[in-house]
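User: Please predict the structure of the protein below. I'd like the answer in structure-token form so I can feed it into my own downstream comparison script.

Assistant: Understood. Taking the following sequence of 380 residues as input:
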Amino acid sequence: MAVALNRNELRTWSQYIRDTLIPELKDGIAVALTTSIIDAIRTFLYELRTAHIDVDVLRYSRLHTALKEVCVMSDRWPTMITLPAAALLKTWEMRYGPLSDITADLWGPGGRLEGLVKLTDAGRLSNDGTSRRVSSPVMTTIRPKSTKSSWSVEGSNGPFFAMKTGHNGFSVGDWWIKPAAAYRDGIIHGSTNGITADMDGAYAILMTDMEEVETGEENIIRYWASRKDPGCLQLMKNVHSREMVRVLRSWRLCSRLAPKAGLRYDGLYRVSGYGVKLAVNLLGEDEWQYTFVLERYHDQMKLEKALCHPTADEMDDWRAYKQTRDSISDNSNDGPSPAFQDGDKKVMDWMQNNAGQIDDGSFKKPNETEARTITEWRSE
């Protein structure tokens, strides 16, 4: 009889394995795998043996990726976990084909890049690199700084929704692959080069390149705004209005707090001061420089929680986007090329070396552990 497992709980398991346990094991934290954790995972894998897991559930939960990473690190996991994990991978691969083909649909409904269309000198390109017409009545062109590409965003609320104060429905740690996707969702206005503002003041800042000056304090930012950004004068108004701004960091930002990929929302900040001075730029020319002091609002999620992003799932999507970008000859240099991924080969080699042990007999339910949800035993 098939066991009914909630797809959201499966995803929580996958994220816990990939974002908590595996990093701790890589860092050599000996207490990462306690007896209760091992027994809970064994029970979970035992239930998976008879559960109905289809391709859509795997794509949503990314459970196959989590179990593959467990097998890759087989020297740090007990065999009572690695052998049943490998048996599940073998079963799913026989049933659905190569598991590496089961990836998130970035461009489909609900995908991270839904509604984004790349523009080139030759015309618009769809996500698969073919030319197409776009019939949506709402079409906005995003031209990111320091890139050679443009993107159109269909059906976006960005121009209207971004011009509001506060979190605006977003959570600290929210993450996007591209600025165009953040614009689509309405956390920034893509046409303002970093500062989202109107005549009443500023609402958001996307920091990139050399725009953050190190202060030694995580909750205080010295923001070096581009002199060409028309939002500078509006951001000055926030000092007197005391309205806070949303701050996002791009992977392009030269800062120890920058995400390793994409862009991340780091919360609300108050503009506590600013300075303007005439300085000499790298070309030996005089130019005005604007520097703002931003202080993080205390009554919100701590910054250290945001620094967990991008998560393993988000990095999966980043790499998938990179592959798609390369396939449509995108020269926008949106991020560092991902390192060569040899996880699949390691898993195959390990499974071949342990072929005699990977079978249905690998599943042994712990005698003294009752089946519990991940939330129940993690809260102990």
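That's the full token string. Confidence is low (pLDDT under 50) at residues 121-148, 329-341, 374-380.
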